[in-house]
Design brief:
Layout (H helix, E strand, L loop, with lengths): L1 H23 L10 H13 L3 H32 L16 H26 L9 H8 L2 H12 L3 H14 L4 H11 L16 H14 L3 H25 L18 H17 L1 H5 L12 H15 L3 H14 L4 H14 L1 H5 L5 H24 L17 H37 L20 E4 L9 E5 L4 H14 L1 E2 L14 E6 L1 H9 L5 H21 L7 E12 L12 E4 L4 E3 L4 E3 L10 E6 L5 E2 L2 E4 L6 E5 L6 E5 L6 E3 L2 E3 L1 E10 L7 H13 L2 H4 L21 E3 L9
Antiparallel strand pairs: 1-2, 2-13, 3-4, 4-5, 5-16, 6-14, 7-8, 9-13, 9-16, 10-15, 11-12, 11-14, 12-17
Length: about 725
């Protein structure tokens, strides 16, 4: 007894020593940049048009997440193999035995637990280092990095990688119409091969299974067998990986962890049952394929079903019997399979067939799964911890009798609810389609017509005149002299292709694009390369437009700059013959427009945080370049605005305002393009730097804008200026 106690004490001391040493010696040596940070860097690079930066950060984010997953798998698998749970060779102490013997039995159990924990700590390092946010996991599960990557690779002319990224994203998001259009476009491009359309996130077991089933369906059974066998091997490997990843921290699942007060054994039970439930749900995860609404039913057993018939057709009765018996492990009462087995047995001979049993890997899987289900159903019955069995083959005797009726009722209820939800979704889709066609939007109800704040600004057109909602045209925002000064600043400070990674013609090959941001203009002014007062005027004018927009649209929340750009579009004279494109195609500023489906998808890479947009024109001495609004079909023009010095167009950035720019066919069209957000988190970083630079360069008196003059809101639309707006045939012609 003393010797056994000494061994136990030695073990516990060794565990404590290992745990202390783990702080300094992490085998993982995890020094990679966190995927969260890399993903954030990638989105920031996308926002500023740094395509090489997008590729670098997003690819590193994908590799970092994969490396973290591999680290967890390696550590948990190795520690489980090196330190398996060891049952006491002696029988557990009975009630009649001394309490000391029972305590020693418990200590042995927890000693093994501590050894496993020490192994994991030494291998993984501090767990906090490897935590990932739920938001990031969601982005990766949606395959969002590939959405950014396909654009970035396309911009840097790496078509093979762009196609692969686009296809990978589309496989996981088959309803994404914009990506479908991109893929259709890629297929028409020279140099793009069929092999380029590959899923970079494909699961090996699912890829092999689908390929095997396709060959099976085409009656190429000999060719199908190796793929189905490979699918099985990959499935069991993926299952072990999935199960290992379940052994993570406890998910309080709605509980406030500060109020969680379970005792030792209840806490262990809660966590262990959660892990077991996760492991059981690996069945669902491995049977799921992106683009399918539901997982494959009876996914693992179906492998043996396909194989038994394939082996029969190629004359391999030994394997046919083995696969048939394996299938019957899961569904012992299947009449068709029993008949098949009887036939194969007769063909091979009963004596030889009797020696063939189900596959060992499947037997181990089946036995382990049943034991886990028994524990989970026990926890459900005794502790009330819910468990939804993912398998249809579970024998009834595994389920406690009083739960059988309850589960039957729950399944019927779930099926009914699922059907009702399906019917409701169809009704909603119909309703949304009708509402879209009627061009109804809640934003139409938003109040407009607030004060314009400054003397000289005139309200020229309201939403009613512009045949839409949340639209306004104002004149007299700046003077002729200010227009000329800002236009000179553009020609002096603007860079060809600014904001588009130097692409000189980002929207059309028939025009050249020049631009400069507020901060860049101020920096050039500070360096003496452009007139500093002109850069300061640029800064003040953008602030003036922001204030007027916030006032006119009665915004209760602060309006922040999202992006500011002083731009000029110059017609390329020799490229105007037979020109059919526009200066900027129809789009929506905060979502991806799918004109054919009459929807606008508000998700990255769209600038989903943009809420309001404005354009301040600086000149009119050019041909073309009119701004026009359309319906969601991108064809039905509802209003058109002709640029002129001091004219500002403001509108909300959502689906109610698709817009485009007609071709500039002669001369140079200059304007200040502004986007605003109501979300302070997306406030323009350059603007903050510009604010600081202005405070440093100018006195408070110089930074103040002219005093705002309160005005009464104008009732009704003023008379439109001739030639400044045209209505579509379906619009309100009588108002013009």
């Amino acid at each position: 007894m003393a010797a056994r106690s000494l061994r136990l004490l030695t073990t516990l001391l060794a565990v404590a020593t290992a745990a202390c040493r783990a702080e300094a010696e992490s085998e993982a040596e995890w020094d990679m940049t966190a995927p969260d940070l890399l993903f954030a860097e990638g989105t920031a690079a996308y926002a500023r048009g740094d395509w090489a930066g997008v590729v670098l950060s997003m690819e590193r984010a994908l590799r970092s997440r994969a490396a973290l997953r591999a680290l967890r798998l390696r550590c948990r698998t190795r520690c489980a193999a090196d330190l398996p749970w060891e049952l006491d060779p002696d029988s557990p102490p009975s009630l009649a035995q001394a309490s000391g013997a029972a305590a020693l039995h418990d200590l042995r159990f927890f000693g093994g637990l501590l050894r496993r924990a020490a192994c994991l700590r030494r291998c993984l390092g501090p767990s906090a280092t490897h935590s990932l946010s739920e938001e990031l996991e969601l982005e990766f599960s949606k395959r969002s990095p590939y959405n950014y990557l396909q654009v970035a690779y396309f911009k840097i002319n790496k078509l093979e990688k762009a196609v692969a990224a686009a296809h990978t994203f589309f496989v996981g998001n088959p309803e994404h119409m914009e990506m479908r259009q991109n893929l259709d476009y890629y297929q028409t491009m020279s140099g793009v091969k069929e092999a380029d359309f590959k899923d970079l996130e494909a699961k090996p077991h699912m890829h092999e299974f689908r390929l095997g089933v396709r060959l099976y369906s085409e009656e190429q059974l000999q060719e199908a067998v190796p793929h189905l066998e490979t699918a099985l091997r990959e499935y069991f490997a993926a299952d072990e990986e999935c199960r290992a990843l379940c052994e993570g921290p406890y998910d309080y699942d709605g509980y406030n962890y500060l109020e969680y007060n379970a005792d030792l054994f209840q806490a262990i039970t809660d966590h262990y049952v959660q892990v077991l439930s996760c492991k059981q749900n690996c069945v669902t995860e491995l049977a799921s394929h992106p683009g399918r609404e539901k997982p494959f039913e009876d996914f693992l057993p179906s492998h043996y079903d396909y194989l038994q018939f394939a082996y029969y057709n190629i004359g391999n009765y030994t394997q046919a019997i083995e696969c048939a018996k394996t299938y019957l492990l899961f569904f012992p009462n299947d009449e068709v399979m029993s008949q098949n087995l009887a036939y194969y047995t007769a063909m091979l001979g009963e004596e030889q067939a009797r020696s063939i049993g189900p596959r060992e890997s499947a037997q181990e899987y089946h036995q382990r799964s049943l034991l886990e289900k028994e524990l989970l159903f026990f926890a459900y019955d005794v502790f009330g911890i819910p468990f939804v069995d993912p398998d249809s083959w579970t024998p009834e005797e595994v389920i406690p009798k009083r739960l059988q009726e309850k589960q039957k009722s729950e399944r019927e209820t779930a099926a009914r609810i699922s059907q009702e939800i399906g019917n409701l979704m169809k009704e909603i889709e119909t309703l949304v389609e009708e509402k879209t066609k009627e061009s109804l939007d809640v934003n139409r109800l938003t109040q407009e017509g607030g004060p314009l704040l400054y003397d000289g600004i005139r309200l020229t057109m309201t939403s009613k005149v512009l045949n839409g909602s949340q639209r306004v045209v104002m004149d007299g925002v700046i003077s002729e002299d200010e227009c000329r000064e800002l236009q000179r600043l553009t020609n002096a400070a603007a860079t060809l292709g600014d904001g588009y990674r130097g692409q000189t013609s980002p929207h059309t090959p028939s025009e050249k694009f020049y631009g400069v941001t507020v901060f860049k203009a101020l920096k050039l002014g500070q360096e003496g390369k452009v007139p500093l007062q002109s850069a300061h005027l640029y800064y003040n004018v953008t602030e003036k437009v922001r204030r007027v927009m916030a006032s006119y649209f009665h915004l209760d929340s602060p309006l922040y700059f999202s992006y500011s750009h002083l731009v000029c579009r110059t017609a390329i004279e020799e490229a105007q013959a037979e020109r059919k494109d526009g200066s900027h195609p129809v789009h929506v500023d905060n979502c991806i427009l799918n004109a054919e489906a009459l929807v606008c998808i508000k998700e990255p890479p769209a600038y989903t945080f943009r809420d309001y947009s404005a354009i301040l024109y600086l000149n009119a001495d050019f041909d073309g370049g009119n701004l026009f609004f359309t319906e969601l079909d991108a064809k039905t023009v509802t209003a058109e605005v002709q640029p002129q010095c001091g004219r500002a167009v403001g509108f909300s950035s959502g689906t109610e305002n698709p817009h485009g720019v007609k071709a500039v066919t002669r001369g140079q069209r200059c304007a200040i393009a502004l986007w605003f957000t109501l979300d302070a988190r997306h406030s323009e970083r350059d603007r903050v730097q510009a604010d600081d630079l202005v405070k440093m360069l100018f006195s408070p008196e110089e930074t103040d804008l002219p005093h705002e003059q309160p005005q009464e809101a104008q009732e009704g639309p003023p008379k439109p200026v001739q030639g400044s707006v045209s209505s579509s045939e379906s619009g309100h012609k009588d108002e013009l």
